[in-house]
Amino acid sequence: MRGDPPVRRDRHHRRAGRLAHHPHTVPMQSLDKVNTPAELLAWEASLQRRLGGPVTGGYVVDVKLDGFAVAARYQRGRLVKLVGRGDGRQGEDWSHAIGTITGLPQ
């Protein structure tokens, strides 16, 4: 992010409920932390229950970094909306931050 990003600048708007909310086109889930082999196996069992069968193709495991989760919506190759995770079903409209997130294609 650049010098004074909207995420920091607009915290008071978020707390005051001034950011509009938009539904996610696909529910946005939160990542779980796994710290031991037993927790990884428990997570895999829960995933298999939710999928109704075994996972095929393997897994990718990466470090979880806490931060700002946002869904980027593109139309005809252009970034048109940024929606924060919120409750996973709907989130805050952060579209005013388009152009301020380094590395996010516009």
Automatic annotation (TrEMBL):
Biased composition (Basic residues): 9-24
Region Disordered, residue ranges: 1-29, 87-106
Gene Ontology MF terms in the entry: DNA ligase (NAD+) activity
Regions annotated as coiled coil: none
Pfam family of the protein (one): DNA_ligase_aden
Superkingdom per UniProt: Bacteria
Positions of the NAD-dependent DNA ligase adenylation domain: 19-105
Protein name listed in UniProt: NAD-dependent DNA ligase adenylation domain-containing protein
Organism for this UniProt entry: Streptomyces nitrosporeus
Taxonomic classification: Bacteria, Bacillati, Actinomycetota, Actinomycetes, Kitasatosporales
